[in-house]
Design goal:
heterodimer, A: alpha+beta, four-stranded antiparallel β-sheet, 14 strands, 34% helix, globular, B: alpha+beta, 5 strands, 33% helix, 14% strand, elongated
Chain lengths: 294, 167
Amino acid sequence: MKPVPFDYYRPGTLAEAADVLAALREDAAVLAGGLSLGPMLNLRLARPRAIVDITRIPGADGIEVRGGTVTTGALLTQADALASPEIAREVPLLRLALPWLGHFQTRNRGTVGGSVAHADPSAEIPLCLVTLDGTVVLRSRRRERRIAAREFFVGALATARAPDELVVALEWPRAPADAGHAFEEVAQRRGDFAIAAAACRVRLTPDGRIAEAAVGIGGVEPRPICVDTRPLLDCPAGNADAIADFAALTVKSLAPMEDHVARAEYRRALAQALIARVLKTAIASARKHSEGGG
Amino acid sequence: MKPYLRAGERRRIELTVNGRRRVGYAEPRTLLCDFLRHELQLYGVHVGCEHGVCGACTILMQGRAVRSCTQYAVQAEGADITTVEGLAEGATLNALQRAFTRNHALQCGYCTPGILMSATQFLAQNPNPTEAEVRDMLSGHICRCTGYASIVKAVLEAAGAAAEKGV
């Protein structure tokens, strides 16, 4: 199918884009790479009166490392993020997740900001941002504001973004040198939406106990979530039984979605397997860092 | 701020396709794939699923393989695009196309133009791919005839031929 007729806006700056959104609010849809909005328009699931094409705004596709934060512009393509040495070094979890995201032909045009603004429950970038406790930067004509990713995603395709706001950047905490990371997902075929996905960052004490652990789950509940990892703290990292028990206990409190692809109990079972798997892989990667002397 | 182009209004779109300057007309909702086919008569751009999944409409834009069904012609003003029509040198198929012919990497041919465009960027970036890398690249395309094995073989053969020639 083809989209409904719409007015096409092409702002040249973020300020102009914010002006258009302030005037049109819910009537406008923001178009970046078009990998999510494009299909919704063609299928007429979205019928906006106006499209605001932000792809020609200069300077919104950068990667900036400053202090303890890596800032990625909303228009950074997923392909450029995947190829970036800064992302590989400073946000290794994102680097591990990106190959799972669609296909190289879609990553060539899809943006990191677009994935976050769209907020598909199974999307990889939102899951990483939530797991790492990153921040979404929003801009409107009124103000610029920063909101924790853990509060930004409120449900399936639903976020805390107001109709006059634009996602302009994402802020990622720089990974500590001794942290280990892992990302895993299960989909029907390579590049499809995840039925369940898990992301993990761990740090170990010098004597091999878990000092810090962040575990996120995507595709299971309507938004990406972080699970409570307190039961893992101080647990010997090599204790596979403790990790298996933790995964089993954690998924009991999940409220998985049910759809034509998977039943709720299948999603719960996948989450359990994936939590154990990412913890094991992240711990092995953290050990390698400590053996490597940093 | 006024719209750049109002709903239903047609605008003259100028861009470079296969090395030539081309001009056509589009309204805001005209998909880039439809513009290339109906305005510029580039019927090698195939339209399949229209939601970015099947890969039939894949073209090169600024050298990158992208879907042309999830973007609009008006967005492509000034762009540099290559379609499957731009691959052959005159009447002579290029090395990748010849490898497809030799290995029976197509049957109905619906998915082929998109796959050729993906493989073009893929091989330019990664001249010596492994079979697993070729299969990962192909995961962005759907072919219902071949079972993919012959396509994998053709892409690997094209890579090998380029390596031997030192290209």
